[in-house]
Specification:
single chain; 152 residues; 6-stranded antiparallel sheet; 6 strands
C-alpha cells in the first residue's frame, strides 16, 4: 500500500476479511505487496499476499459497496433510529477509519496487528519509528463522526 492511500486499501482488506470471518489478523506492508495473515473460524492459520494491482482492484470493489451500505443504513435508520447495521461498524469500516488517521498523520505503514478490542500500528513518520494503539471503540466513534459530517 502506498502512503496516502491507506484508507482505501485497508477498507478493501477489511471487507474481504469480514467475508472470510477472519480472526486476529495481521497486515504486513512492504513496498510492492501486502501480506495478510489471520485465523479461520476453525483455528487454522491462513495467509494471502496481495500485489499492488490486486489491492487496487479490491479497493475499487470496496468503494462500489460504499453506496449500497449507505442506502441500507439510511433505510434501517428510518425503521429503527437506534440500530446500526454490522457492516457499517465492521472491520472494513474500522480499517478505513484507521487508514484515514494514518493518511492524515503522514505515516509510512509497516504493520497493523489486530487484537480483540484494538489495533496496533507500526510504521515511521519522517524517518522516526512510531508504534500506536487504536481502540475499536475510538475508531467506531471517529467513523460515526465522519459519517455525520458527510451527511451534513
Amino acid at each position: 500500500m502506498i502512503p496516502g492511500s491507506y484508507a482505501d486499501g485497508l477498507r478493501a482488506l477489511g471487507v474481504l476479511l469480514d467475508g472470510e470471518h477472519a480472526l486476529a489478523l495481521s497486515i504486513i506492508n512492504d513496498e510492492h505487496a501486502v501480506l495478510v495473515t489471520w485465523h479461520t473460524r476453525d483455528g487454522t492459520m491462513a495467509r494471502r499476499r496481495f500485489e499492488d494491482e490486486e489491492l487496487a482492484e479490491l479497493s475499487r470493489q470496496a468503494q462500489g459497496l460504499r453506496g449500497l451500505w449507505a442506502t441500507l443504513h439510511a433505510s434501517l435508520q428510518r425503521l429503527r433510529p437506534d440500530a446500526a447495521p454490522e457492516r457499517l461498524t465492521g472491520r472494513g469500516e474500522l480499517l478505513r477509519t484507521l487508514g484515514q488517521v494514518l493518511d492524515q498523520q503522514g505515516l509510512h505503514l509497516d504493520a497493523v496487528i489486530e487484537a480483540p478490542t484494538r489495533y496496533r500500528v507500526v510504521g515511521t513518520v519522517g524517518g522516526a519509528y512510531v508504534q500506536a494503539v487504536y481502540s475499536s471503540s475510538d475508531l467506531q466513534a471517529m467513523s460515526r463522526e465522519q459519517r455525520s459530517r458527510r451527511r451534513g
